[in-house]
Write a structure and sequence with these properties.
eight-stranded antiparallel beta sheet, single chain, about 575 residues, about 5% helix, mainly beta
Length: about 575
């Protein structure tokens, strides 16, 4: 046995010698050098940063192209063989902490907010001018020492980064009016959010850090490939805790809020204004003592967005000076409010300011400014149904932008109108300009013109009552599943197709290799990220959270059927 091993080793050594000799005889060795250093330039040498200008351009860096030399001039060197980083430090010799940002091309710019974050992380104190040093580092490989450019010094005066507020961004990472609070700036953000079902969002901290969904629901991350966070299906009031140190979040749904004591009844949630209201008749003025309680439904990492598994959690409020505080799994305390006048009054629990929840009473009836969940489209299919009905409607999917969407089999003789309430023929949007496929609308316009009818077919219809626009896109013979069976590099490919089976219905075979890390979405068009459906439990939602059914299915081949008009799906 030992003799055999020795012979095998000797054979391998002989082969290696022969290969080495062949390489030497074929020609000279080829050597690739480290890149030559670049010259780094900055558009300014001093910057005074102001938070009011956070989105404006603060500074830009440019540099000359790095080059490498190669011993065989007949061979070229691809640009992607050179990796370049911009290094930032508060020490001129870069002996302290160094921040690296990989760069491409020959320039890099920073907004005021981005530069403020860089300088703060480097150690500069707010409102005190200090030097920050920048240089380029370029290398042709991980095992090759980088070469550095000249050092550029920029004297920067930063502003204090307020980490007591967490900003809610929508699914497109645009700023919304919603905020969460972290009073001690410890990275734990709390507050109430009034949202629609499956509302998706991101959290941005004061330093610009953006948090989104990790591989597991209710886990959060700042990785470059994060997905948006999303709420479960009940629309309404949620008490949210986003714990960035623990990298998790939770959403506590309040199905109702009961007021008891000197005033008693069930309050109504005014979602657009993030407040609870209760109208009552006051027979006298003066102070009243009340209590506010309910039992919420807690959604977190252990239950996901499964409403049946949500954890019953008692919720109560107490009073601390003029503001309210929340108590979970407790009885809360007495709250004192003042009645200003006799007659109709409105008790208001305002949860909009995360730093300052308040409970007050106003005179008169303060009604909720509700946003319709759906808009009705009578006339959209009168040549199919035979009449103008309220059976077809688009559903709200973006409350901030007041966007509604849906898929319809359109066959209209006279065009159609857009109505805010079932069987209400008066409160409607009508046509102002454009054609059958895109244009503008107005509410209760005196001209009262129908929106023009497109050619018969199946369309996705998108309406904005904020921008007062409409758009129709004809569906094709194929839709795409995006994110199913993502690879090791988390590729999101439009390579799983479902063919058309009947108007608005697509059905075909899908292969599930393993559970997708982020779930998967249904895209209506190839390489289009803007027109997609998500869903759960067989129900589809336009721009909703990803479908995660594949996590509960064994690897294999299944038939998936998607009904875009009725917004349902099956996997069998």
């Amino acid at each position: 046995m030992k003799t055999t091993n020795i012979l095998n080793i000797f054979s391998w050594l002989c082969m290696a010698v022969l290969l080495l000799s062949a390489c030497e005889e074929d020609g000279d060795k080829i050597y690739l050098s480290s890149p030559a250093s670049s010259e780094l330039l900055a558009t300014k040498s001093e910057a005074v940063l102001l938070q009011d200008n956070a989105d404006e351009l603060a500074i830009a860096f440019t540099w000359t192209k790095s080059t490498v030399t190669i011993s065989d001039e007949s061979m070229g060197v691809a640009d992607d063989q050179i990796t370049t980083y911009l290094e930032i430090s508060a020490t001129e010799d870069f002996s302290g902490d160094v921040t690296e940002a990989e760069v491409t091309g020959l320039q890099k710019s920073y907004t005021v907010a981005e530069l403020n974050t860089l300088a703060t992380n480097a150690g500069l104190q707010p409102e005190v001018a200090g030097n920050v040093y920048f240089r380029l580092a370029a290398t042709t490989g991980s095992n090759i020492n980088p070469v550095h450019s000249n050092v550029v010094t920029v004297r920067i005066t930063t502003y204090r980064i307020d980490m007591s507020i967490g900003f809610i961004l929508d699914g497109n990472k645009d700023m919304t009016d919603m905020r969460l609070s972290s009073p001690t700036e410890n990275g734990v953000y709390t507050g109430f959010m009034g949202v629609t079902a499956w509302y998706n969002f991101y959290l941005m901290e004061g330093d610009g850090t953006i948090w989104g969904e990790n591989a597991e629901m209710f886990e959060i991350s700042t990785a470059s490939n994060i997905w948006n966070l999303w709420f479960p299906s009940p629309a309404g009031s949620y008490y949210v805790i986003i714990d960035t140190p623990a990298k998790e979040w939770s959403a506590l749904y309040l199905p109702e809020l009961t007021v008891s004591g000197d005033i008693a009844g069930e309050m109504t949630f005014d979602r657009p204004n993030n407040r609870w209201i209760y109208v009552f008749n006051a027979t006298s003025t003066g102070s009243r003592t009340i209590r506010l309680n309910t039992t919420g439904k807690l959604f977190n990492h252990s239950v996901g967005d499964n409403a049946d598994a949500a954890i019953d959690t008692p919720v109560a409020f107490s009073q601390d000076g003029d503001r309210l505080t929340i108590e979970l799994n407790g009885q809360g305390g007495s709250i004192t409010v003042a009645v200003p006048e006799t007659g109709d009054c409105t008790l208001i629990v305002d949860l909009n300011d995360p730093h300052n929840w308040v409970c007050t009473i106003t005179s008169g009836i303060d009604e909720s400014d509700d946003i319709p969940e759906v808009l009705y489209l009578p006339g959209i299919d009168d040549l199919i149904s035979g009449a103008w009905t309220f059976d077809n409607y688009v559903t709200l999917y973006d409350e901030d932008k007041l966007n509604y969407a849906g898929v319809f089999h359109v066959n209209s003789e006279w065009g159609y109108t857009i109505h805010t309430e079932y069987d209400n023929w008066n409160d409607k949007y009508t046509w102002i300009s454009g054609d059958a496929y895109a244009g503008t609308i107005a509410f209760k316009d005196e001209n009262n013109e129908n929106i023009p009818a497109p050619a018969p077919g199946v369309y996705v219809i998108d309406i904005s009552t904020k921008e007062l626009t409409y758009e129709l896109l004809a569906l094709e013979n194929t839709i795409y599943l995006v994110g199913l069976n993502t690879g090791e590099n988390d590729e999101w490919l439009f390579d799983t197709l479902l063919p058309l089976a009947s108007p608005g219905v697509y059905s075909g075979s899908i292969t599930i290799e393993k559970a997708s890390a982020w779930g998967f979405a249904i895209s209506l068009f190839n390489n289009d990220w803007n027109h997609q459906f998500g869903g759960s439990d067989g129900k589809l939602y336009y721009q909703g959270g990803n479908i995660t059914d594949d996590a509960n299915l064994a690897p294999g081949t299944y038939t998936m059927t998607v009904d875009l008009i009725n917004e349902t799906y099956t996997i069998e």
